[in-house]
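User: For a benchmark we're assembling, each entry needs the component sequences followed by a predicted structure for the full assembly. Here are entry 17's components. Please fill in the structure.
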Amino acid sequence: MTRQTAVPDAAAAPAPGPASAGDERLARTRLLNQLVVRPELGSVLGAVLVFVLFSVVTDRFLTPSGVATWLDDSATLGIMAVAVSLLMIGGEFDLSAGVMTASTSLVTAIFATQLGWNTWAALAASLVFALLVGFLNGWLVMRTGLPSFIITLASFLMLQGLNLGVTRLMTGTVQVSGMRSAAGYASSGFVFASTMDIGGTTIQVSILWWLLVTAVASWVLMRTPFGNWIFAVGGSSASARAVGVPVTRTKILLFMTTATAAWLVGSINILRFTTAQANQGIGLELQFIVAAVVGGCLLTGGFGSAVGAAVGALIFGMARQGIVFARWESDWFQLFLGAMLLAAVLVNNAFRRRAERVRR
Amino acid sequence: MTAGLIEVRDVGKTFGSVIALREVSTVVNAGQVTCVLGDNGAGKSTLIKILAGAHQHDTGEFLVDGAPVRFNSPRDALERGIATVYQDLAVVPLMSVWRNFFLGSEPKVGWGPFTMVDRRKAKELTRASLAELGIDLRDVEQPVGTLSGGERQCVAIARAVHFGARVLILDEPTAALGVKQAGVVLRYVAQARDRGLGVVLITHNPHHAYPVGDRFLLLKRGRSLGCFDKADITLAELTRQMAGGAELEALEHELRAVGAVDGG
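Assistant: Structure for entry 17:
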């Protein structure tokens, strides 16, 4: 942080020591500042650690089929984690995101199997439903000024009830099945749930969706004006409004983005498994948030990374499948998860304090 | 004398039955600093909110370039080149300097859905605008929160200047700063003035106002105690007026009496 001598040292230490002491202090500041602008750094280090660990302790982890397995496990989680990270950078939560993946599956399945719609039309109806829920979440949060935590907790509970209630009304059971016989299943299944054969290994198309979503989200966040506004509304919505950023519109669009991602994951699930359970998706919302936080998102908003959230999801998938490969008790996964989250939050918190520190 | 950039004549404002401001007159010229001084509740905020377009005056006249105006919103004022830098600065601490600088007015490249922020241009313009005011930042990528309070004030000032402000209203820019930092900010105030901007500096510290000010408007309980050119008032007189003059002398007597009783 070199300043011209014309400007007095703005951050003069209380005790003006020798010049060399000041230089040391500035050098440290510079390194920390560089870390601050790279929120995904911690998650990348964590991913390398987990990768090395399971590569060493298990034989299957590094085999092509092993890699395909943990990438597949990370993919749908990653799509959601990336969308949730944008929302969290924008300063909001969406607790209904997990159950929305089930709701969108059910809407598609009910339209396609119970009402006999073409699968594509059912998917479109499901997308409209998702956009509507996302809009309502965002509109209610902005309109009432209440924490999104509470508003989306309410929509989470309502959707959970609707999922079970409507499914039981329509089918008499708590699941909808029979997607395979619906019109348009083959073409839509190709888009959302096909597999590719690469060198004898079966790769799920969901992995490509995950990469695409991560790339688009990261581009929007880092390169577009809208991305600038996402950081601003999460960092300080009053300041953002003062310089003319449409805060309400930005936040509502973020809620709609999360809902759209849930629709994508719901579509992948229903077309892959052809059956939707009415009680699916509950508890996933916390996994999305954990992955986003491990990826460097602050719970308070204004800081984070889409790539980091994708890497957070990757850690999740690698650990979950790695523990299976290693034949450990799956109980250890929760312990690992908790430790990972704690470490991430501690690191993030230190970064934020560094970045937000008010110097006089 | 030519007409000032902005001028208020006997301007007043009431909120219900509360008279917040009464018959206040002053002028802001290009390349000069008009200081507004007063204690808490003197009407400083009301006056600058009228100038900034956040409030409308009830009585008197408000002239911009010699023509009477009535702003409906801060945006109206901004369009006439009147920019206000509030104490809380409207910066987002976690965002980088250049992202803050262009927030809400990002330079764009590309077309349609592929419109992007022109990052290179944004960074260069940020660096150049700050350099013009004599602020040399090593890295416009660093979060604004890592800057000192004075530097953040300067970023906000440079932003206002870059986006075409002719009049710069600074609300207590030195209030939360240490002595050195306040000095840095005052230097940039002087620089903005030398670039031909009209500056309105709100403060309750005569020691900050006197070195840079050309004109001093003293407010007390919503009334003007007078608007003095620098030639007509000394720092000592300014301080005395600010502190409440006679009231302070009375207080001094009182304290001396208390001291005498304690001592005896």
